[in-house]
């Protein structure tokens, strides 16, 4: 009998992934979706069907799910990176029944994961029949699993418009992460807010005592404990999922999941930690002594080892041979920031052992930052990338779908190496044409450029016909966020800057960035990956990295741009919009020549003016980005220069 094509999807996607307060939640949401998609694919193959897209024969996550004999360790990529999209195309002789069976298998696997986490929760917390009813209700109402028979992908989109999944109204105190579902509590909606807070204070104490930092709690001004995090069943599953080995939920794969992803505070400090450890290897007397002092005081203060399972390869390499340094990457991430150390409410220390321990920890941190002449930035980056018009490519090149899938598999495999080995980040997801990663501030833009190159190269290798048509491109959205910014906001902003700025305003094959301080976004900037100007090709990520270096004051004449010039640029921006490019550059050159400091210009005459104009022209090109006037011309904006200043100084 002839096989028929059908499309299959598991949702919701963005809400499930973005409902995250910690980076572990963000990873778990992405991974569970990818894993359940693989479970559906494996069931379809088991029933005699096949997966038409994506290509899965070489997909390592699918291999792990499909081969029950395979055992996976926590460091293996399959145990920590979602490598499969939530939507796929399949073929089967009886597609409706096969799809229905795959959906049932997804629900069974989800119940298995839920049941294992529930047992773990029950072992540590008081569980009543009412709480178990809340858990079951929320778990059963989580997924929208849909399929549509037919070769065209839009049929599934039409099917999604016929919504038959309506979650029940949730009563009582709401979850502090998703804000939609009821927070777990012994008596459900009959529990007052204070009762729910007290219950979660007890849950937090029980879990954190034995397993490290999993839930947050706080104390009020009367020293009464309160559960700062009060979670629903779904958000609890994401938080505790990494602690559950697969044999406990009866899943198809025998493995231990990856236990931790770096906190936003730790990721903000990664560049600084690498600098500290590198300098300690070169100067053990000065830097090494300050490093040891800081570690000793932090141990005495009983700073939690919340990052013990976090792995950053270059930090591990620098600690090799120096076991006395290893604790520096185990401590809770915000121990590297004075503002958080002084906050006794949210940063508890064992002050019983020494009433002055908080002051001593601050002094030890200052001693270390002074020794290396550097301090950590409170900013990190979240990078999201997405292939441009992938659905259109699949429709326009149906005979190339297999090769296209091979290209995406190659790209996903390379993403791990690019993010983690070359740019000191952590990959959260790499399935199909999507990527999500956490990165230190200093590496995010170059990492996106390297990923873009890898994406294009994978198309060149497998579907050259698409590249020959000028297609097969990818866009990026990067949010540089203060470490205290709620993660849910950062995720939403990253999607916004990718979709609305890089793809829509700039026109795809582009990157866009947004800097978000504690009070909110302060600038948005973007460019095409490459641009032709005066016959030369500008690779903007590389150009920005090069210009950034000219903000540094490493020696006389090495600083080409000053903070004052950037701010003056902003003040003149409204005037510049009324001028043509030559006039704008002439005005800015006059301002530049009035800058203070040794900028390494020739002493006088035409040579001095020409060199200044050359530098200003380079800077001015950077300012012209996504703003477009009515005539189709592009307008300058101060956000480009301000972004450059931010990258150079690592603060706003």
Features:
single chain; 652 residues; alpha+beta; four-stranded antiparallel beta sheet; 24 helices; 18 strands
Structure summarized in a few sentences:
With 652 residues, this protein is of the alpha+beta class. It has 24 helices and 18 strands.
Uncertain runs with pLDDT below 50, 5 residues or more? 627-632
Helix content: 40-55%
By secondary-structure content and strand pairing, the structural class works out as alpha+beta
Cα Rg: 27 Å
Polypeptide structure, described:
It is a single chain. The protein is of the alpha+beta class. A six-stranded mixed sheet has the order 10-11-9-12-13-14, with helices on both faces. Helix 21 (about 565-575) runs antiparallel to helix 24 (about 640-650). A hairpin with a 5-residue loop joins strand 17 and strand 18. The model is unreliable at about 625-630 (pLDDT under 50). The chain folds into four domains: about 5-170 and about 240-255, Alpha-Beta Plaits; about 265-370, no CATH class; about 380-530, 2-Layer Sandwich (Alpha-Beta Plaits), CATH 3.30.70; about 530-650, no CATH class. The longest helix is centred in the first third of the chain and has 30 residues, at about 95-125. It contains 24 helices and 18 strands.
What's the helix and strand layout?
Blueprint: E1 4-11, H1 14-18, H2 23-46, E2 50-53, H3 60-66, E3 71-72, E4 87-92, H4 95-124, H5 129-140, E5 144-149, H6 154-161, H7 193-211, E6 218-219, E7 225-226, H8 233-240, H9 246-249, E8 254-255, H10 264-282, H11 284-300, H12 313-319, H13 338-341, H14 357-372, E9 379-387, H15 390-396, H16 401-421, E10 426-431, E11 434-440, H17 444-462, H18 464-468, E12 474-482, H19 487-505, E13 510-517, E14 520-528, E15 530-533, E16 536-539, H20 540-549, H21 563-576, H22 581-593, H23 605-623, E17 624-628, E18 634-636, H24 639-649
Parallel strand pairs: 3-8, 12-13
Antiparallel strand pairs: 1-4, 1-5, 2-4, 6-7, 9-11, 9-12, 10-11, 13-14, 15-16, 17-18
